[in-house]
Design goal:
Blueprint (H helix, E strand, L loop, with lengths): L10 H26 L14 H9 L6 E3 L5 H7 L3 H9 L32 H14 L6 E6 L6 H13 L3 E7 L2 E2 L2 E2 H4 L5 H6 L5 E5 L3 H17 L4 E6 L17 H8 L3 H11 L5 H24 L30 E5 H15 L3 E5 L15 H5 L4 E3 L4 H13 L3 E8 L7 H8 L2 H4 L9 E6 L14 H4 L6 E3 L4 H11 L6 E6 L6 E5 L11 E4 L4 E5 L3 H14 L4 E5 L2 E3 L3 H11 L2 E8 L4 H13 L8 E5 L8 H7 L3 H11 L5
Parallel strand pairs: 1-2, 2-3, 3-7, 6-7, 9-10, 9-11, 11-12, 12-14, 13-14, 17-18, 17-20, 20-21
Antiparallel strand pairs: 4-5, 8-15, 13-19, 16-18
Helix pairs in contact: 1-2, 1-3, 1-11, 1-12, 2-3, 2-9, 4-12, 5-6, 5-15, 6-15, 13-19, 15-16, 20-24, 21-22
Length: about 675
């Protein structure tokens, strides 16, 4: 039996290795030429000089293994098996490209080869790779996830967060750092206090080695050793491939940071020429075979160029395709109520929703900071650790980007993670993963991949927690295409929206106002799923529409009751879903009442309330008898003193004053 840790240097294999490197080198040369002809636009990062890394690594992998790449990923894509035609058409932006023309040079995706795409955010693919590996581990899949990144990514926080998570959870992931000595134009020794990258990885307790990245056989051998070790006993491995790019960082790069002599010295170690020379010297290949391979490669490139030139552009009418799923499954059927109710709290309703989901589907798990024994900051998950164990109630380090990215990756391979972020302010540390991966990957990949993750977080002020724990930023997330944004205010929604969200094919963010956790109400003991598409009218009225969501709902209802005592009947709309907004319910209400006030705990400038007011003006202007009013938080960071905090956040009196003003009375 052959040793799986050693390269198979039979004649067919050495031809494949040489062919693989030549395909990349000649392809990149043609891409540079096409760029100067303005056939390829945007950023173009070429892989010349690093071919041995991609070809050596891919030679050691199985079809079932997964690949996460970087923006310099053409070599990885070709070595993995993506056709030249599909790759080049993508770089042209044509509809026949491997990502449907949506990704371009930096975002090649291919579901068939388990190629999870290039990532244009330095280090951004690292948390995603840990999540893919986490999902495979939790499902008992025998797969290895390989994550490529450059030496520049080592300075990013996501590098350290991913290293720690992978080592902590013993994930089957192989990290490949392509150390080409320069992060764009910054030399490694100018950017890193410790330049031995393999040693830095080893400090996280994972096996790590530095390998000659200019030798295809050295790279294959190292990868085979690492992959065999992972398959034998899942745990992360790290390879620092010491390599060099012969071309500039990108086609925009004037390359002022290194001289020609340095490049010349590295060219003497050209991985293709070294390998050809070794093969010829040892009579393992003949010159005519090399010429045959080169001719074959040139023919492939000519075919790829011809195909890209002739390929169609995607119609403009298809612009909004693959932002979200074209079809959503029918929401889970609500259970038939037994009629039995019990008084409970919003907190307990959320907990019941999580527990119900975990009992129904073993793929559901909760992850976040202190969600285990501590039960989370607001004690939502208290007691669930004892019920479901550490694997499914998964405490994470304090690394919002790392564990959010891991949740996204796990969702992409079939798990149903519920990611809990302590507070909306902390979510900004994970914004890269939410915006640049979860919300965009369906579109960038031409619909091949999606990230149906559910992310929960507390939002809002009122607890004297000061500026860094008290803001209402859900309107920011409602701005992002590709997300579904929920704001459950009632106990029914707090419990039932979660199960429905876990069935959604797109990422869902759930914002729980922290003032609601202690809210009490009667709730059906067998309360079931709740739809997540429509706003709800919580109080009918005829004189004006009060439009709100989340923590402001109960203030708005209180204001409506007080206004009723003055003879003003206000209709109260609970938006519930902040993206996509339910225009139909809003416009129907405004058509009845002819006046509207939007109550929003976000800041007034650029707020969700501004969006709603604009939509009312666009769709219902001729039905209005008065301008749309708004009640928002004061434009200050939320202050600590109780009286100032109260003044900064919409209150009942503010809502009533705005309602009277809209009706033409005095505030």
């Amino acid at each position: 039996m052959s040793d799986p840790t050693k390269p198979k240097l039979d004649h067919a294999h050495i031809r494949d290795l040489l062919r693989g490197m030549l395909r990349i080198r000649r392809f990149e040369g043609k891409c540079a030429e096409l760029y100067t002809q303005e056939k390829i636009r945007g950023f173009l990062h070429l892989y010349d000089g690093e071919e041995a890394v991609a070809v050596g690594v891919m030679a050691a992998l199985e079809e079932r293994d997964r690949i996460v790449s970087t923006y310099r990923e053409h070599g990885h894509a070709l070595a993995r098996g993506i056709s030249m035609e599909a790759a080049l058409a993508e770089m042209y932006g044509k509809a026949t490209g491997c990502s449907g023309g949506r990704g371009g040079s930096m975002h090649l995706f291919d579901h068939e080869t388990n190629f999870y795409g290039g990532n244009a955010i330095v280090g951004g693919g690292l948390p995603l790779a840990t999540g893919l590996a986490l999902g495979d581990m939790m499902q008992g899949e025998d797969r290895v996830t390989v994550c490529f990144f450059g030496d520049g990514a080592v300075a990013e926080g996501e590098f350290h967060e991913a290293m720690n998570l992978a080592a902590l959870w013993k994930l089957p992931v192989l990290f490949i750092c392509e150390n080409n000595l320069y992060a764009m134009g910054t030399a490694l020794e100018r950017a890193q206090a410790e330049t031995d990258i393999a040693m830095r990885a080893a400090s996280y307790g994972m096996p790590a080695e530095a390998v000659d990245g200019m030798s295809v056989t050295a790279m294959e051998a190292a990868t085979r050793r690492a992959v065999a070790a992972i398959r034998e006993s899942p745990h992360p491995q790290f390879i620092e491939a010491r390599t060099y790019r012969f071309r500039a960082h990108s086609m925009f790069d004037p390359e002022l940071y290194r001289d020609k002599a340095e490049v010349g010295e590295w060219r003497k170690r050209d991985p293709i020429e070294r390998f050809k020379g070794w093969l010829l010297e040892n009579n393992l290949i003949h010159e005519d075979e090399i010429a045959e391979i080169e001719a074959e490669v040139e023919a492939q490139i000519a075919n790829a160029v011809a195909a890209a030139e002739q390929a169609p552009w995607e119609p403009v009418e298809e612009l909004e395709r693959d932002v979200v799923a074209a079809e959503r499954p029918a929401p889970p059927a609500p259970s038939k109520p037994s009629g039995e109710v019990a008084q409970t709290t919003y907190r307990e309703a959320v907990r019941a929703g999580i527990m119900d989901a975990m009992l129904r589907d073993e793929r559901v798990f909760l992850m976040g900071e202190d969600v285990g024994a501590y039960g989370g900051t607001y004690a939502v998950s208290k007691g669930l650790l004892a019920e479901f164990g550490e694997d499914r109630i998964r405490d994470t380090p304090l690394s919002e980007s790392g564990f959010t990215g891991a949740g996204i990756g796990a969702a992409m391979v079939g798990m149903k993670p519920i990611v809990e972020i302590m507070t909306v302010n902390f979510s900004l540390l994970a914004l890269d993963q939410i915006l640049n991966t979860a919300a965009t990957i369906r579109h960038m990949s031409g619909g091949q991949f999606a990230a149906p993750v559910v992310i929960r977080m507390a939002t809002g002020g009122g607890r004297q927690l000061a500026a860094q724990h008290s803001h209402s930023l859900e309107g920011w997330y409602a701005h992002i295409p590709g997300l579904r944004v929920l704001a459950p205010a009632t106990l029914e929604d707090a419990r039932g929206m979660l199960w429905t969200a876990l069935h959604d094919p797109d990422p869902v963010l759930i914002f729980e106002n922290l003032l609601l956790y202690n809210q009490t109400s009667d709730l059906a003991v067998d309360a079931g799923a709740v739809e997540i598409d429509h706003a709800a009218i919580r109080r009918p009225g005829r004189d004006l529409s009060l439009i709100t969501y989340g923590g402001s709902l109960y203030k708005t209802l209180e204001a409506a009751e007080a206004l009723a005592a003055e003879g003003i009947e206000a209709e109260v709309i609970d938006l519930r879903v902040l993206r996509p907004l339910d225009d139909e319910t809003i416009m129907a209400s405004v058509a009845r009442t002819r006046r509207a006030v939007v109550v929003d705990e976000g800041w007034r400038t650029g707020s969700l309330s501004a969006e709603i007011a604009a939509r009312i003006m666009e769709q219902g202007f001729w039905r209005l008898d008065a301008p749309v009013g708004r009640v928002c938080s004061a434009e200050v960071p939320i202050p600590y003193p109780k009286h100032l905090e109260a003044a900064a956040i919409p209150q009942v009196a503010d809502i009533m004053a705005a309602a009277r003003a809209t009706l033409g009375g005095q505030p």
